[in-house]
């Protein structure tokens, strides 16, 4: 039963303790009456009470012992354990890493207890390392007042934050719940781990259903340039196949039979209502070619002419590093020569992520919409709050403008690349930085004032048409990756999505970023970022707890700024590529559940809609006939070794599982040098 007071979940290892979880909303007592033990299971209360508890009362915070003697300062070389690698950190606002906490004006949506964190938090290094104001300030903002509670009778729960990106906000959030920060990334007794960099160790030791871990291990399916391109192509290919196979219906592929998605809604594009059922990739993603695939780069070199500018980007870099424009035959010839010179180089075959071929070339949007003559792009957020079931959200972010006026013929990249990192290079940045980041309200006002009448736009175009379009595009991308993302209860992710608007008000997705910048070095960022981070954590926690307890997800107490894009309660899950271990650990279906028909028929908003897939696991993804003619399908998600390209795997089905590898290839830093 979904609302059973006592629930058990199976545990991988032998259970030595059994404890019953207390009634909903109550924190389990330290000494409680043991419940009847179900062999091979462990009660939810075996988890730390905070994770097992309802969204609601936080544990009573108090004074916690200072961390263990082996604590290391943040940012040490051992961070995230070994080996480790950056997972495309997106420090767009890079440089300043001390969030100004006055922006954190929103209270945690997860109701807290009357007890407050002590105004004398335990001395740990994160607050000083993060170079922000004392964490207690944000904690006070989060919790809003109250009396300190007596010291916690047991240590923890523990949390770990790796790196500085948003660390003070995350740390303050966790401490406001009474959690205790640890500095040793190798410790396995954490309740929440938020890492800027992904490490194989983190995923290997992750205890599903017991811990929260930031970043999906294979988010590269969306967050590298090649990964996103391949994922979108896979979906396009599957859609066209399904359409042909079923005489036009798209129901079989990529779409859940149970519930309409955002993609089913009609959209305004560009500026006018034009009903369309499903997006086509070319409508929102600029034409792109992979340089890691020989036939694609040759195709690009052949098609290039000087009537169109192209932009060349490393697959897994950020901050505009390694980006250059291709405007004339000489530049393209230089790129061609560079890729040819390494084509047969065994070193580059082994390390494709370092080579000049680990890139894409993309049609450059030459006619961007300008704000006071300056180019801009929009950063929005895709939140994967939960993967079992999927709970996917959208949130607004902000607009990023260049300092200089846009000139398509200028060779100065700072007028072409809207990244804050690029703008910071200008001596004018310190003077004008506040004008390089606009709030969405500011953008909306500007577009209302400047274009609304002149261009016949709907009023508040930003909050109507643009918002819906971004949501639709994000939903499309998520659905494209949905069946391939690694799902475990406790994984969550926040992905930064960059959109460009052209002067026809057409919305283009430029890329998606793992580990989006959470710095707050501008006024607008102070207003936006803490709210995004706090609600991310709130939603991750609430959906985790509800999933663990088999409760219906909606309504979500934590949901405020985020908009639900996809509620996976109606999906069949655990799913392919997902958590087999969780499936084993779930209790067998109740009689009621068994008799209620196929899971897909269960309304998602009914209690108990969360369900394990019936044995045998119903296929989540359609079985597609035949090999893919799509040449990109050879290397789903990420460029593999060049040797693979040549080894005849090019007919791999695009809907096949990509290589589960995460750490090895991502450990390799992309090359940032211009050819
Ligand atoms: N196809 C394009 N057309 C026009 N401008 C583009 C295009 N692609 C990228 N840009 C510009 O270049 C900037 C950097 O590109 P992109 O975001 O893809 O790279 P990045 O290095 O991953 O940057 P970051 O992760 O810091 O946002 C964009 O913010 C945008 O201003
Ligand atoms: Mg990026
Ligand atoms: Mg970007």
Taken from the alpha-carbon principal axes, the silhouette is globular
Mean pLDDT: 69
Report strand %. 5-15%
Count of helices? 19
Bound molecules: adenosine-5'-triphosphate, magnesium ion
Largest sheet: 11 strands, mixed
The CATH topology of the domain at 221-241 and 367-567, please?
D-amino Acid Aminotransferase, Chain A, domain 1
- What is the distance, rounded to the nearest whole angstrom, between the alpha carbons of the first and last residues? 61 Å
> Mind telling me the CATH class of the domain at 221-241 and 367-567?
Alpha Beta
Helix content: 25-40%
CATH superfamily of the domain at 221-241 and 367-567, please? ATP-grasp fold, B domain
* CATH architectural designation of the domain at 221-241 and 367-567: 2-Layer Sandwich
> What is the total tally of β strands?
21
Structural class: alpha+beta
Computed CA radius of gyration, to the nearest angstrom:
25 Å
Low-confidence stretches: 1-47, 54-89, 93-149, 249-275, 575-675
Report on the structure:
The chain has 675 residues and is α+β, with helices and mostly antiparallel strands. Among the domains are: 158-214, no CATH class; 221-241 and 367-567, D-amino Acid Aminotransferase, Chain A, domain 1 (2-Layer Sandwich); 287-363, no CATH class. It is 26% helix and 15% strand. The protein has 19 helices and 21 strands. It has helices at 49-52, 125-129, 135-143, 167-176, 200-204, 220-223, 225-245, 294-303, 329-343, 346-350, 420-424, 429-432, 440-450, 462-482, 523-549, 580-585, 591-595, 642-646, 663-666, and strands at 8-10, 41-43, 85-86, 158-162, 180-182, 190-195, 197-198, 212-214, 267-268, 273-274, 288-290, 310-314, 324-326, 359-363, 370-371, 374-387, 390-401, 437-439, 491-501, 507-513, 563-567. The strands form five sheets. Strands 4, 5, 6, 8, 15, 16, 17, 18, 19, 20 and 21 form an eleven-stranded mixed β-sheet that branches. Strand 15 and strand 16 (374-387) form a beta hairpin. The longest helix is centred in the C-terminal third of the chain and has 27 residues, at 523-549. The chain is globular, with a radius of gyration of 25 Å. The termini are far apart. Mean pLDDT is 69; it is low at 1-47, 54-89, 93-149, 249-275 and 575-675. One magnesium ion binds next to strand 20. InterPro entries: TTL/TTLL_fam, TTLL10. Residues 1-157, 579-675 are annotated as: Disordered.
């Amino acid at each position: 039963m979904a609302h059973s007071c006592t629930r058990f979940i199976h545990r991988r290892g032998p259970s030595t303790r059994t404890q019953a979880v207390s009634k909903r909303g109550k924190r389990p007592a330290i000494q409680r009456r043991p419940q009847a033990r179900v062999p091979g299971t462990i009660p939810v209360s075996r988890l730390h009470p905070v994770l097992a508890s309802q969204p609601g009362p936080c544990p009573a915070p108090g004074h916690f012992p200072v961390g263990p003697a082996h604590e290391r300062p943040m940012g040490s070389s051992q961070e995230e354990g070994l080996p480790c690698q950056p997972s495309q950190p997106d420090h767009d606002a890079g440089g300043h890493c001390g969030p100004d906490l006055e922006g954190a004006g929103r209270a945690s949506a997860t109701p807290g207890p009357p007890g407050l964190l002590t105004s004398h938090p335990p001395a740990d290094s994160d607050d000083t390392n993060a170079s922000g104001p004392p964490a207690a300030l944000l904690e006070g903002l989060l919790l809003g007042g109250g009396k300190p509670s007596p010291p916690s009778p047991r240590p923890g729960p523990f949390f770990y934050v790796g790196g500085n990106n948003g660390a003070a906000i995350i740390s303050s959030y966790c401490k406001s719940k009474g959690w205790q920060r640890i500095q040793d990334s190798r410790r396995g007794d954490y309740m929440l781990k938020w890492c800027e960099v992904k490490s194989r160790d983190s995923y290997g030791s992750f205890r599903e259903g017991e811990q929260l871990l930031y970043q999906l291990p294979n988010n590269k399916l969306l967050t590298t340039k090649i990964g996103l391109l391949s994922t979108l192509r896979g979906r396009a290919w599957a859609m066209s196949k399904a359409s042909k196979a079923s005489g036009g219906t798209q129901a079989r592929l990529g779409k859940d039979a149970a519930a309409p998605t955002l993609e089913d809604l009609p959209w305004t594009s560009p500026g006018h209502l034009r009903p369309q059922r499903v997006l086509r990739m070319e409508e929102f993603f600029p034409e792109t070619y992979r340089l890691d695939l020989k036939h694609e780069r040759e195709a690009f070199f052949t098609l290039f002419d000087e009537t169109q500018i192209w932009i060349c980007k490393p697959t897994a870099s950020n901050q505009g590093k390694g980006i250059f424009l291709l405007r004339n035959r000489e530049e393209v010839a230089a790129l061609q020569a560079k890729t040819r010179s390494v084509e047969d180089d065994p070193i580059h075959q082994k390390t494709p992520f370092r080579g000049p071929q680990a890139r894409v070339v993309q049609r450059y949007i030459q006619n961007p919409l300008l704000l006071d003559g300056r180019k801009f792009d929009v950063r929005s957020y895709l939140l994967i709050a939960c993967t079992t079931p999927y709970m996917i959200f959208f949130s607004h972010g902000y607009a990023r403008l260049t300092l200089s006026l846009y000139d398509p013929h200028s060779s100065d990249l700072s007028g072409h690349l809207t990244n804050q990192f690029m703008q910071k290079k200008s001596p004018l940045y310190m003077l004008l930085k506040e004008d390089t980041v606009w709030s969405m309200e500011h953008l909306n006002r500007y577009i209302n004032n400047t274009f609304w009448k002149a261009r016949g736009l709907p009023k508040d175009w930003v909050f109507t048409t643009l918002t819906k379009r971004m949501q639709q595009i994000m939903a499309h991308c998520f659905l494209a990756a949905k069946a391939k993302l690694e799902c475990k209860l406790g994984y969550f992710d926040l992905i930064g999505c960059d959109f460009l608007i052209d002067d026809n008000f057409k919305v283009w997705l430029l890329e998606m970023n793992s580990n989006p910048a959470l710095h707050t070095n501008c006024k607008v960022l102070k207003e936006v970022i803490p709210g995004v981070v706090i609600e991310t954590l709130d939603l991750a926690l609430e959906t985790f707890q509800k999933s663990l307890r088999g409760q219906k997800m909606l309504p979500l107490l934590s949901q405020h700024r985020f908009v639900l894009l996809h509620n996976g309660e109606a999906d069949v899950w655990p799913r392919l590529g997902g958590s087999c271990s969780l499936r084993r650990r779930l209790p067998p279906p109740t009689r009621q559940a068994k008799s209620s028909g196929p899971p897909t028929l269960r309304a998602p908003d009914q209690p108990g809609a969360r369900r394990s897939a019936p044995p045998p696991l119903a296929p989540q993804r359609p079985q597609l006939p035949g090999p893919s003619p799509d040449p990109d399908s050879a290397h789903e998600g990420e460029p593999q070794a060049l040797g693979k390209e040549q080894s005849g795997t090019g007919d791999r089905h695009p809907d096949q599982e990509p290589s589960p590898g995460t750490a090895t290839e991502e450990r390799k830093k992309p090359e940032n040098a211009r050819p």
